Amino acid sequence: MNKAAFFDTKPYDRIYFDALKNDYGVEIEYFESKLNPRTAVMAKGAKAVIAFVNDDVGAETISVLKENGVEIIAMRCAGYNNVDLAAAKGVMPVVRVPEYSPHAVAEHALALLLTLVRKTHKAYIRTRDYNFSLNGFVGFDLHGKTLGVIGTGKIGMTFVEICRGLGMNVIAYDPFPTQSSLEYVPLEELFERSDVISLHCPLTSETYHIINGYSLKLMKDRVFILNTSRGALIDSEALIAAIKSGKIGGAGLDVYEEESEFFYEDLSESILKDDVLSRLITMPNVLITSHQAFLTHEALKRIAEITLGNLKSFFGGEALANEIVSKKKVILNG
Ligand code: NAI
User: Fold this and answer.
1) What is the mean pLDDT of the chain?
2) Which of 51, 74, 114, 188 is within CB 3.0–4.6 Å of 55 for a Cys-Cys bond?
3) Which residues pair with 323 in a beta bridge?
């Protein structure tokens, strides 16, 4: 059987991959460590590497993988901003899972939004202490409010449909507008008109810090910002300044720009070293989840099926439907 080295393994990954690996003819060696230039050598003996969002799939890592006989990198996620595509080109193909459950991510964005707007995160704690007071809990109806969606791909459109169900008006920005049912507006107009802004675009050089000091100033007072895409879409320090000034009604963040050192780890016994993340966590109108929007049964099952299917195609010498880098060229870029 062809062997794959699986990095940044969590218990829930093993359940879904172990259930399917034999069906796809792939043997898996699991490592808890993240993939990086130092750990890449652990893949020796494997023909494939299975990596995730916070693994370092940069030029140095790719070079060490190549030296150790790895022939393909299979990302078990949709985003690939952590992969040096140019460095992989001509060295080994990179495949990904382009779509597994847009519902998982969009529904998590809704969970963040409703929690912040109706303050259920605080109500949960208050009632456990037999404090049944409602003081400070006044929310607002989402019905009739304007949602601004940045990025109208699979997840963005799923979120749009959910929010239309709530009776929200939707406007959108996307440099590649494809949805005839949507009102697309320039980015600055979206910032000015939206009551809730939700980020569903990939992280690229154009979208890096798309939420920054300038864009925050354009926004309505008490705006709600949701980020279930990639942390570096938001300039966290600018966000903190805006929250301190009272500009922000709420921020629901499933991702954080420096998350790779912290997210997915239990650091409850340590002193958090990141002052920006610590400050965000202290703010009553900020809700942080640690990159868990994808974490549903349906999504994990699809991730395992598609990743193992990608490897089966590769080992069987078939065309790779989900390739982002082939041996010859970069197919997707941003
Ligand atoms: P998609 O590829 O279907 O849609 C992305 C959309 O963003 C496209 O319509 C594209 O035209 C648009 N876009 C590209 N450049 C843009 C720009 N400069 N400004 C605005 N829009 C731009 O991707 P999908 O599946 O909807 O995923 C969106 C993002 O969600 C991924 O890039 C990934 O970062 C993130 N994600 C997060 C997960 C989590 O667990 N938090 C899980 C899965 C994805």
Assistant:
1) 96
2) 51
3) 95
The yes-or-no verdict on residue 329 having pLDDT over 90 is no
Number of C-alpha atoms within 13 angstroms, CB side, residue 82?
26
pLDDT for residue 333 is more than 70: no
Structure tokens at 334: 């941003």
Inter-residue contact 107 to 289 (CB < 8 Å): no
List pocket residues of ligand 1, CB cut-off 6 Å.
78-79, 99, 102, 105, 150-156, 173-176, 200-202, 204, 206-207, 228-230, 254-255, 291, 293-294
Closest Cα to residue 51, out of 84, 90, 24? 84
Top mutation candidate among 105, 149, 152, 263 for ligand 1, by most atoms within 8 Å of CB = 105
Euclidean distance between CA atoms 280 and 291, whole angstroms: 15
User: Alpha helices of 119-252 — where are they, by DSSP H?
Assistant: 120-128, 154-165, 187-193, 213-218, 236-244
Q: Locate tokens 């239990």: which residue?
A: 266
What would the mean pLDDT of 118-131 be, rounded to a whole number?
Answer: 97
- Tell me which residue has tokens 């008490």: 222
| pLDDT reported for residue 331 | 81
Compute the distance between CA of residue 191 and CA of residue 193 in angstroms, rounded to an integer.
Answer: 6
- So what's the pLDDT on residue 91? 96
Question: Are 89 and 325 contacting, i.e. CB atoms less than 8 angstroms apart?
Answer: yes
pTM, two decimals, is 0.92
234: its two tokens:
């938001």
CA–CA gap between residue 203 and residue 157 (Å, rounded): 18
Name residue, tokens 């172990």.
18
The CA-to-CA distance between both ends of the chain, in Å, stands at 34
The mean pLDDT value for 111-124 works out to: 98
**Amino acid at position 259, single letter:** E
List the structure tokens of 132.
């049944």
| Identity at 164, one-letter amino acid code | R
What is the rounded average pLDDT of the residues 203-231? Answer: 97
- Helical pair 120-128 and 102-118, crossing angle rounded to 10 deg: 60
Query: Cβ distance 51 to 57 under 8 Å?
Result: yes
Measure the CA–CA gap between 135 and 160, rounded to whole angstroms: 32
